[in-house]
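Follow-up to my post from last week.
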Amino acid sequence: MQIDETAPSLETLTLLRTQAVPQIALGEFKEVGGTSLAKNINVRGSTLRAPGGGNFADFLKRSFQSELVAAGTYAASSTTAITGTLEESRATEDMAKGYASLGATMAVSRDGTTVFSKRYRAETRWRSDFIGAIAIPEAFRQYNGLYSQLVRTVFADPEFIAALKK
Amino acid sequence: MQQVIWPRVRSVIGLTRLAVGMLAACTLAAMSPAHAAKWFVDSALGDVKAEEKVQPATPKPVQILFEFQRDGSPNPRATKQVKPWAFDAIKQSGTFSEVVETPASDGAVLSIRFNNVVKKEEIDKAKKDGFRAGLGFGLFGGVVATDHYVVTFDYVPATGAKPITTTVNHALHMKFGKKDVEIPGFEVKNVQAAVETVVRQAMARGVNNIASDPGFPK
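User reply:
Got it. Predicted complex:
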């Protein structure tokens, strides 16, 4: 199964517009150490994959892009760019409860020089089920939802916004 | 036909999916048309009547942010399936001059959260009834499952403006096997028609509520 694009949210759009975030580009998004960290998420033998044969760092970039485009603050030519390193990506469940987490160090660069970086995390817990047909898609759905949650966490951080506006 | 369209919408519905899944595991090969699942759209909401319809004199463009949720958390797969139906319904309302996903010229945004609310006690009952009905091939029992939807509309006329908010409740019922109960809704031919009708009615009602607000640009 392939992970689905997350929908832009009013909360993130409002954060970007009301804080007058300037036009931003997106730079490199990679997995920690350049390894293939969590190319797939496996739950009870079923696999969730990133789209187009890519990895989940690419997917995180797409999630940022989706929110920036919706807010009208994405410009590929901007000298201010966001880059990311995916460091944590997992989903587990034990037929009774589930847990998924996503963690990345997000950085702001200006003219190619990093001016700010900070680690951000998003996590979720849910009640799982002994029926695989229910438990597996629910675990994937919960993991999928972490991407928009992580993007919102980053744009809700005043330090990150200040770095974008400097 | 139902087998063909079912995969397209099965992840949209929560409780009914669960009940059908339970009984399908037991009856897939033996289920006769007489005992196939029947779908009902709850009749409490209904369509927006002509006399209720509010039409702005000068419709303005709007950017739509649409998300299908399950118990308040995102369901991206269902969002992808349902969004085209929601957009069509909003366009057909005539409330806005343009309905887009990118920023509208004046910054107006309509956020729609289509939340499928799952009630634990109903899930447990649907599982139990679904399993029992499945074992009897629908001849010695049945299951009625209801999917509840709470649809929240937030319209922001311009960046920084106070939002206009309205909430619409809707429901979808599924009946299988011998279950002699009255369903508070009208039957539709299949699950796709059921979900499309729920979405269309909820969109029409929500957008009309927003347009009826004194703060909505006329």
